[in-house]
Every structure is written in structure tokens, then in C-alpha cells.
Amino acid sequence: MSFYEPEGYIDSTDYPPLPRHSYLECTYNVTVYTGYGVELQVKSVNLSDGEVLSIRGVDGDALVVLANQTLLVEGQVIRSPTNTISVYFRTFPDEAPGTFQLHYQVFMLSCNFPRRPDFGDVTVMDLHSGGVAHFHCHLGYELQGPKALTCINASRPHWSSPEPICSAPCGGTVHNATIGRVLSPSYPGNQTSGMACVWSIEAPRGQKLHLHFEKLLLDEKDRMVVYSGDTNRSAVLYDSLRADSVPFEGVISDGSSIRIDFVAAEPAAATAFNIRFEAFERGHCYEPYIQNGNFTTSDPTYNLGTTVEFTCDPGHSLEQGPAVIECVNMRDPYWNDTEPLCRATCGGELSAVAGVILSPNWPEPYTEGEDCIWRVHVGEEKRLFLDIQLLNITNSDILTIYDGDELTTRVLGQFVGSSGPQKLYSSSPDLTIQFHSDPAGLIFGKGQGFIMNYIEVSRNDSCSDLPEIQNGWKTTSHTELVRGAKITYQCDPGYDIVGSDTLTCQWDLSWSSDPPFCEKIMYCTDPGEVEHSTRLISDPVLLVGTTIQYTCNAGFVLEGSSLLTCYSRETGTPIWTSRLPHCVPEAAAETSLEGGNMALAIFIPVLIISLLLGGAYIYITRCRYYSSLRLPLMYSHPYSQITVETEFDNPIYETGVSGRGARAVLPRSAGWCERRQGKGLSASPLAGAALPNQAVYHGSPCIWRLT
User: Fold this and answer.
1) Which spans are transmembrane here (predicted)?
2) Which of 269, 396, 426, 440 has the fewest CB atoms within 10 Å, i.e. is most exposed?
């Protein structure tokens, strides 16, 4: 079965599979214009155990399986890599086939987003055929591979070549240098021998070069030599084997070129250096640089007399230099002092209303044997909130937080190893933080460090109120959020709570945890096993769209639906499409059927007789009320309620000219008639007979014969 429309449905009930060998099968192919692909969305799928539904991409004569019946769930989207997609369905001839419905539509094919290189970036203009991706590396790294890739082949788009990488070269030459970096070279993964690298840096004519050592960690077998010239016979500015310390203030060339030689006997993980270079005009000072900080200048060209003021990033403080330097010396200008360093210090006294505390030497790893103490003090009527954002220390290092200005006060928290964010409140305006790193430092290695922020907050006797949560609500145990008060969160039907549902206001007026949130439930509960059966589950997580197929063991018959599907509802949790079936013995099922037939054979005749009797009763009742004969015994008279017998001393009767018109007033009972015999009347009660002479009676019927 083939489809060529830009949008449509593939419904197995509209195009059922056809016999082929011992199966029923069908293949549905969707083909669209070149340059476009086919996007399938699963609308419904209800398959039996053993049935096959496979969605495949078509690439020439090759078929690539994109998804099959074990992975298909309602709402899932599958995209073809080319302009054709194929759906294969196979079922059994002796069973009712499963059903599915797929919606398809076209989309424009495109290349995947290219991978960003480490130590570099990528800029993409367009992902469709003809689009270009541009790559570049960070300062000090070189691009290994093409600078630009093009998305080609509209029928199956892909990039013109593999993505490039950024690596630090082992040596090189830089002409007309303005600003750049020399980095420790990247070792190939399989390299075991040493290396020798030479960098030659040449500034424009008439300019000089300044080197700033941002980082320099060398192995004891490594050596670095910096020459003020382009040969190894030039004057030496720095030699790692002869220097007692690293010149972090930097070095300046005598001319317009510098040479850097680096020799490593073998690859060493500890070796790392980052050297920043820049060219500057003669008669000017070079542009200062400070890591983990910033500066302001009175003259951006750094002429004679220019002043520069340095500041450090939060958590760092100035070391090894003044905060202000000046460009001096008219003949050969230079700074009157070296640039300072911004370091994360080991301990200190802090009194600002807010601040940052970093592990020593951050962002570099802290060293072994550190013993640091920070004391924080804020306003007397305030307290402190401490937010530990990053905590990554080794298991032999200890970070302790004290609630006060001494190490003898109560411990708010003590941490080793790595942990998630922490939030602490002090009960006073003072906080003491102690960090101790293992002097050995070799057993557990080095940790990354820590970052924590503190801020002054108001002191009160209650916790701050917590927010409402979406798709849920909260209840409070106390009117005021005092110490010990609890807030309990609950979710609306169809949602699960994520996080702690009960939060307690602690003694330090902080909550025991962060508020939870409500997450939509997208799975069904396990309906359970059926005795004497096996089951096949399409998804063990039981997400929406999951099907469970029950099959009874031999000798048992299934009662109920064999296939259960988990489906979502707008309100409430997802549920199964039907109740859990049962497997009953075949003999019991046949007995149940025979008993049902016998009950049916008895019930039908009884029903027919009841209907006939009911019809007869209704017919007689209608005749009684509407018959023109008006039978006397079928009607009651108002006088029939009188129970006391009445006797008349003077009987009243009337006679007419003829017997036909004679009228008589009758007494209530036949006994009265008998007592009147011999008085000219003879009576005989005729119950239920009509009076031929139209007598008006008031009791039991009597007939008088006039004598």
C-alpha cells in the first residue's frame, strides 16, 4: 500500500493485511518530494502478542529500523532520514488482528546540529541543505580540521566532513602578534614519549612583548626557558630550572620577539601552563592584566602617567601588589609596580552585609594541609543566611559551620566529601566557618573546592511563609509559623508530589527542606497477575500507552478482555481500559454455560404465562368499569357503610297502573323482606339478579310479588 499525499493517516482497519504464506501482512510506504522527510505520530496502537509492527527508514535498497512494536506508545513521533518511510505489519490468520493508527506529514530534511569542539565554538547559519557551520577555537588553541562545514545532499542531508577539534599546539610561530596565549600542549591519547616544543612570537616592528604567567605547573623533569629574542642564544628572561619562583608579574622583551622552549621527558598529568602575551607600543606601558579581577584606567593607550586601579571578584582579595599602579619613566615607560594577584584566601574577617566565601586558591584546587577560619559578623539585630552552592571536597577534608564567633559554639553543619546545595541560618549575627584539608592529600586526591554566599537577614521568631504549588495546595499546622510549625503539601488528583510533603520550621527559623512540586502522573499502577496465565508487558514502567496482553495456560479459558491499555485522562490518574480478566477451567466454563441455558429455558415460559395473566386481569378490569350492563354486585352504594339494621313500622312502597311501571323502595337486608311476608308481599332474595320492575334497592336484592 503506497501513499503520496503530504499528510494523511495509516489506519490498519481501512487497509487490513492480506494473506502471505502462513501470516497476514501488509507494507505501507509513504513517499514525499525529495528534500523532505516523513514524520509519523502514533495515534493509537493495540497489538496482540506475537504481532509485528515495524517502522523503517528507506535508504536506497537498505531498510533501517526506526521503531518497532516494543517501543511504540501513543503520541510518539518518528522521523525518516530520507523522503520515504515504510511501515510493516504482520499478524496471524486465525485471530482477530491488532489495530493501529498513524498520522503522517512532511517536514524539511536538515543536517544535525554540529558538535561544538572542546575549547571552541560553532556558529550555524542554516541546518538545511546549503547551510554553513563556522568553527573557531579559544585563544591559544588551533583548529584541527576545516573552519567551515556545508550541509549537502538534499535527499539525505549531512555535513561535508567531520567536525574539527581544538587542540593546544606543541610550538608554532606567531607573526604580527597583538594578543594571544601559549598553552601546555595537548597530548595525543596514545603518546608515551616526551616532547620538545618551541614557540616564536613576533610583534609588529617597533613594538615590544609582555608575557604574563597566569598558570605555570611543571613536573620536576620538565623545563621551560623564555628568551628575549628569536633564538636560543638570546638573553634569558626566565629559566624554570634556575629560577626560585615563578615571575607572576610577567616578563618584558627587549625587542619585538620572544622565544619559548619547553621540554618534557614524558607525558605528565601535573604539567599545565597558561601564558598570556601581548604587544604594546614603545613609549607606552603594556596593558595590565589581572586574573579573577578587573581594573579601571585613566588612559586606554597607557601613555606615561596613566594610572590603573585593580579590584577583585567577590571572594578574592588583592595580594602581592598594590591596588593602584602608574606608568612611569619617560625614556622607557614601565609600571612602577607589578600587577597584584587576586586570590581566594584561606580565612579572614568579613563584616559586609553580603559576601562570597571560596575555597583557598579558587578556581584552582586547594592545597594540602590547609587550616582556614572565616569569621562573619553583621548587624547586632540581624542574623546570617548561608547558602552553600558548591561543595566538592575529599573524604579526608572537613568543612564545619559554627553558630557563633567561636569554635566552641553549636555546630550548624559539618561536611566531608561532595554533597548538594545546603542552606543554613544562624541564630545570632555571628558565624564561624572552618576548613581543614588533609596534609597527606594523596589518599583521596584533591577536591574541586566550595562556593558559599552569605547575606544579612532580619531576626524574627517565625519562619518565612512558603509559596503555593501549582496543581496542589498546602495546609498549616499553626496560625503563626513558629518553631515546630509544619506545612503539608498535597497534589490534585492525577499528580504525584516530588520532594518532601511535610516541611518543619526548625529552631534556626529555617525550613527542613525546599517546597515540593506536583508532577503529572503519566503511568498506570500495575493491575497485577492473573492466576493460571502469563502476561506480556510492552513497557515495564507502565507509561501511558503501555499494553498488557494476558494469555491463559492450557486447560483454562479467559473471561474478560485479554488486552489492557493504559490511557490518560484530563483529570485523575491514568487507568486501564478494562478490568483484570480471569482464567477459569474449561469444564467450569462449560458447566456455567449449561446452567445458564437451563435457567433460560425455565425463565421464558414463566415470563409468557405472567404476561398472559396480566393481560387478562387488565382486560377484565376495563370491562368492569366500562360495561353498560352495570351489574349490581359490582358496585357499592353509599349506604353499604351502614352496619346497624333498620326496621320500618310503616313499609313504603309504590305501585303503578301496570306491573311494568311499579316501583318499590327496598329495605337493606333480605331478612327484612322475609319479615314482610304475609303483609301482601312475597319475597325471595335473588343475589346478583336484575330487577325487572326497576326497583330501587338499598341493600340485599329482593323481589316482591304483589298479591
Assistant:
1) 598-620
2) 269
Residues 486-535 pLDDT 10s? 999 999 888 889 999 999 998 777 888 999 999 888 889 899 999 999 99
Structural fold of domain 472-520? Complement Module; domain 1 (2.10.70)
Which helix (H) or strand (E) segment holds residue 355: the answer is strand 354-358
pLDDT value at 375 more than 90: yes
Q: How many C-beta neighbours within 10 Å does residue 253 have?
A: 24
Alpha carbons 286 and 131: distance in angstroms, whole number:
42
- Residue 643 cell numbers, joined: 352496619
Q: How confident is the model at residue 362 (pLDDT cuts 50, 70, 90)?
A: confident
DSSP 51-76: -EEEEEEEETTEEEEEEETTT--TT-
pTM: 0.47
Sequence-distant (≥ 6) Cβ neighbours of residue 245 within 8 angstroms? none
Three cell numbers written together for 336: 612602577
Q: Which helix (H) or strand (E) holds 442?
A: none
Tell me what percent of the chain is helix, strand and coil, each rounded to the nearest 5. Answer: 10, 40, 50
- Taking the C-alpha atoms of residue 628 and residue 626, their distance in angstroms, rounded to an integer, is 6
- pLDDT reported for residue 694: 40
pLDDT mean over 427-445: 79
- Taking only the tens place, the pLDDT of each residue in 97-124 is 888 999 999 988 888 889 989 889 999 8
Domain 533-587, CATH number (from 3.20.20.10, 2.10.70.10, 2.60.40.2970, 3.60.20.30) = 2.10.70.10
DSSP secondary structure letter of residue 523: B
- Report the first-to-last Cα separation within the chain, whole angstroms: 111
Residue 265 to residue 192: CA distance in whole angstroms: 10
Q: Name the more confident of 545 and 653.
A: 545
* Class of domain 348-458 (CATH, top level): mainly beta
Asked, colleague to colleague, whether 120-167 and 472-520 share their fold, the answer is yes
